[in-house]
Amino acid sequence: MHGERLGKLRHAMAGADVEALLVSKPENRAYMSGFTGSAGFLVITPEKAFLVTDFRYVEQAEAQAPDFQVVRHGSQVFATLQELVAGERVSRLSFEKNHLSYHQYTVLTDTLAGVQLVPIQGLVERLRQIKDEVEIQQLREAVRLSDEAFRHVLPLIRPGVREVEIAAELEYFMRKSGAEKPAFDTVVASGPRGALPHGVASERRLAAGDLVVMDFGAVYRGYHSDVTRTVVVGDPTGEQRRVYELVLKAQLEAIAAVRPGLTGAQVDAVARDIIEAGGHGSDFGHSLGHGVGLAIHEEPRLAAGVDTVLEPGMTVTVEPGIYLAQWGGVRIEDTVVVRPGGCEVLTGVSKELLVI
Asked: Which one of 37, 74, 150, 283 has the fewest beta carbons within 10 angstroms of its own beta carbon?
């Protein structure tokens, strides 16, 4: 699998006139090599592939990355890189400009005197956009874990319970069921806090009549799920139901529009037009969705101005929302896989307005 990815990357490198590539971004490093340790980088040339790491991870790297030659560095990591680059007679080294820090760049410049450093972006990310069936299965399992956590936590949602208690139970259940960790800081935003799109769980206690927005996910074998559901504590008001149904309509229509050949902007417009027609265009202030995989946010995006064309194997979220200050919010989010002729929805929990 990783050998095939190396072949695709080398083809992309040749097309971009890249002599050698320094891969430092953790998700890209894991995707290309299989190595999941927290420290290390890759150097990839047309003929060779190196994984440079420290003493703590050498054994792990050798086990996880058989397609790479593992190089152990000492206290001066860039000195080891200099020796490697010199040994391979590299004259131009491309690096990931969206990840390497300015400090690292200056040290690299000083250490690799005589080597031309070339900033580059997107070579590995473009490969990561198209998932194979093994990756999709990992995502499917991550989604299943978050689905089960949602079902588990519903009986705990009641007046008087703190948002942080709900978040903790979601995260504990996912970990206990096989997740490596939560995909991100769990959002539980109740009542007026629902107007905060990323309202991470607080000490606020739920009250009767609250809408409760829950956005959470699990990581399984490195792959992230991302789901949002909104429930109501007690009987919903007419306005709550109206806003919820508007968001649900936008989400369902957008999912129906996801298919190969459309751009991210075109799919975003489907949901946005519906919400604007319902009088809440200015209350939907974020993009419709984003790619998901080894990172919780990756390409492609479903957003205005995005001309990326959807292809089979891409995995994206579809998550329209409406947020009203002092009132609350509604968001509904699924993870979907682009398939020939349409898409497959991985998320399995109900999207009807659940009255708790």
From this structure: 74
* Confidence band of 1 (pLDDT split at 50, 70, 90): confident
- Which amino acid type is present at position 341? G
232 near 241, Cβ under 8 Å?
Answer: no
Q: Are 6 and 34 in contact (CB under 8 A)?
A: no
Secondary element (H or E) of residue 165: helix 163-176
Q: Which domains does the chain have, with CATH numbers?
A: 2-128 (3.40.350.10), 133-355 (3.90.230.10)
Question: What does the H/E/C string look like for 215-266?
Answer: EECEEECCEECCEEEEEECCCCCHHHHHHHHHHHHHHHHHHHHCCCCCEHHH
Q: How far apart are CA 149 and CA 313, in angstroms?
A: 26
Q: In this structure, are residues 28 and 96 in contact, taking their beta carbons and an 8 Å threshold?
A: yes
**pLDDT tens for residues 156-196?**
999 999 999 999 999 999 999 999 999 999 999 999 999 99
Which sign, positive or negative, has the C-alpha torsion 177, 178, 180, 183?
negative
* Cβ burial, residue 244 (10 Å; 0-12/13-18/19+): buried
Q: What's this model's pTM, rounded to 2 decimal places?
A: 0.93
Quote the pLDDT of residue 74. Answer: 85
Neighbour count for residue 355 (Cβ, 10 Å)? 11
pLDDT digits (tens, 9 = 90+) for 215-246: 999 999 999 999 999 999 999 999 999 999 99
